[in-house]
Each structure stands twice: as C-alpha cells, then as structure tokens.
Amino acid sequence: MRRHKYVNEANRYAANVIAGKTMRLVSVVMAVSLLQGCFGAPSIDDTMDEYTTRLSRVLDKPLTHEALSQEASPDSTFVAASNIALPSHTYPTLAELGNNVNPLNINIREFYAIQDCELGRIVAERNTALGKTQLPSQRLQYEHRLLNVLANCEARLQAADNPIASTVAEWRKQKQTQYQSVWAKVVQTSTEMKLGLSMAGAPLQASENKDAKASVNALNFINGLAKTLKHESVVEGKLQATHESAGDGSVANASFEDANFEGANFEAANIVEKIDKVNVEVSASDSGELEQQLQIIASSRLPAKLWQTQAILHNRLVSLNQVLAPALNSVQCKNGVTSDKATILRNVFYLYFIEEIQPIASTLNSYHYQLQPLWKQWAENAALSAPFKAHIRTHAIDNFVQYSATMKAHVSLWQDFLGRCNLSPTAP
C-alpha cells in the first residue's frame, strides 16, 4: 500500500511538472504571437530601405538611403533643400501660442450679493488651489458651466428685481467673448492635442492604425465645442424661456418682498433651480466625453502620423527619383522587347511599391481628405494663434502638395519605363 502511495504521488508530481511545462510553453507561444502581431508589419522606412536596396542590386547602382545624398545631385544641398519637415519640428512653443484669458474681477460686495445663486459657489471653486491649476480641458468645462450658471443667476436676479443683475449680465457677456479663447487653449496647449498634432511615435500603416477612425470623430468633436454657446442669442433664449415659463411677464419685475407675487416668484425660483440642475448634469456629461475624446486623439496621434508618413515618403522618394530616372533609362529594351533585367525591376516595383508602399499612401490620402474640412475651419478661426495655424497649413496643405507631386513623379517614372519595355505593373 505504501509503495502504491509513493507511485501515485510520483505520478501526480510528474503530471504537475508536465502541466507546468505545458502552460509555460503555451505562455511563450502566446507571447511570441503577440509580439509578432505588434511588430510584424514593417515600417514605411523599413519598406523604403528594402525597396531601394533591391533596386540597387538589380541596377548595380548605389540607391540606398545613405548613398543618395552623394549620388542624387552634384549639389548635395539640393536634396536637403527638397526635404519637408516632420511635425515634431514645427509645433509652436507655449510662448508663441500665447492666448491668455483675463479672469473676472469680482469685489467682496458683489461676491456676497450672488451667494443665493450657484454662481457664488462656482466663483469660489475657481479660487481654490485646484481651480487655479486647471488643465485646459478642465478650464473649458468650467467656463461652459460658468456660462450656464451666469445665465441662470441673471434670470434669478432679474426676477427678484435685484440691481446686480446688470452686473452679472456684463460678466456673462465678458465670458461669452472669452469662450473661444478658452477653447483655443484646449486645441493648442493640451497634452493630448499636442501629441496628436506633432508626436507621431510611429508612421502610418496601411491598416491596423489604432483609434484612427475614432480620431477623426474625436477631432470633429473638439472642433464642435468651439460653437457651444458661441452666439449670445443662445443664452438670451435661455433667459427668455425662463421668464416665459414663470407665467405672466410681470413676475420677472416683481420683488420677493411683494406678498401678492410670492407664490409666482417661488414658482419662477423652482424653474430656475430645475434648469440649474439640468445644466450641471449636461456639463458633467460633456466633461467625461471631452476627456474621452482627448484620450482617443492622444492614443491615435492620427494627424501627426499622416504628416510624418508623408514627410518620410516625400524625403525618400524625391532623392530616389533623381537617381532612378537615369538608371532606368539606361536599361535596354530595344524595339520594345522585354529584357530579363527589366522584368526583375518590374517585379521589385510591384512587390514593394504597389503592394506595400501604395496601400499606405492610399490610407494616408483617405484620412487627409476626411480631415480637410476641419483644417479649413481652423485656418479661418480667429481664436487660434498664427503660429499654430502655420503648423497646420505647413503639413495639411503645403507638405501634402509636395508629397503628392513626388509620388506622382515616381509613378510616372515607372509608367514611362514599363511602357518602353512593353511591361505592365502586374503581379510577378
């Protein structure tokens, strides 16, 4: 019995060892698979390296990235001058962006006069240590909420025939004027937007670009916030609706001390309180949505990836085109008869440019045109600074034009060669 007990224990131990090794093996396989999934797709730089290396071998001519600066032109500064900048090199500094927003100045007497409104608590909140160090997105949420509270407080004070209502109206108009400047600080200075507009991290891929589609929506969401309470009529409409909801227009001018209107004024106060509650809830909802959309922009970094990728393609191809054109012209295809060398070159062109580079360019172009209406609106928005708009214009317009022309020139170069050698750009 004791022997059988030892045998059973030994078998269980062996089984546990095998199971442990199996689990470790499965873990290793899964880890390798995950790594392959993350790093399997070559970058556009890697593909361009392989493309030029293969062409160099077939043509027996130095076409590699390192050799092009010497071989492309007798004047090597020409190639350097043709290069376009990466987005990380052109983003303005905080000093260049500027855009400071002046705070409301409220004296002690005015502050105590608005304690019956939620406005008093909101103003006090802004003066805390946390309130003074708000992130741009938090400041925008605060300003949005403040505008709602100012409108509600103004309506409440007007209903009470309180003379400070006119002062609150002036505050509201001031904050209304400043709202787009606060929005502009989110666009220009928030960490998430700076990452999205300048720090690509990695170039674009033909597919599997994390959060890229969602990023287009997120950028349009941020853009839409510029219109929130942009027009004074929105707030004026809120005030008018509040008064009309209270019943007879005379209620707005009645004093809370007038016993005949006490019930009516109580009704009006309740309506204002209900509006206060709804606005706070909407503001809180927008708060979470804003932060979520900013995180998507930071995760995807779509604009920066588009602009980095177009810079890489342009900078690599503009110099390659200069050397490749005479090299292809030297390949003999007498009377349109295809040579072995010409066929091999066609195969390299198909496998690397058509199969790998062109799909990335197609994805780039697709997202570029989806974002064009947004860039146009930002170019015309007076709240955004000139250096920021210059950054957008450089990459979304000027550099895209240069990149497109370089891609077109490269395709035309191959079309001429393939036509002369009676070849078509089909799969080998």
Mean pLDDT: 77
Low-confidence stretches: 1-11, 17-39, 229-235, 244-285
Kindly state the number of beta strands: 0
Task: Bin the helical content.
Answer: over 70%
Largest sheet: none
Q: Tell me the β content.
A: under 5%
What's the shape?
rod-shaped
> How far is the first residue's CA from the last residue's CA?
72 Å
Order of helices and strands: HHHHHHHHHHHHHHHHH
Rg is 33 Å
Helical element count? 17
Indicate the structural class: mainly alpha
Structural description of this entry:
Helix content is 74%, strand content 0%. With 428 residues, it is an all-alpha fold. Helix 2 (44-59) packs parallel to helix 15 (302-329), helix 12 (212-224) runs parallel beside helix 16 and helix 15 runs parallel beside helix 17. The protein starts with a helix and ends in an 8-residue tail after the last helix. The model is unreliable at 1-11, 17-39, 229-235 and 244-285 (pLDDT under 50).
Set out the fold topology.
Layout: H1 2-39, H2 44-59, H3 65-71, H4 76-82, H5 94-97, H6 108-113, H7 119-126, H8 129-132, H9 136-159, H10 165-189, H11 191-198, H12 212-224, H13 232-245, H14 262-300, H15 302-329, H16 340-379, H17 386-420
Summarize the model shown.
With 428 residues, this protein is mainly alpha-helical. The chain is built from 17 helices and no strands.
List its traits.
single chain, mainly alpha, 17 helices, 74% helix, disordered N terminus
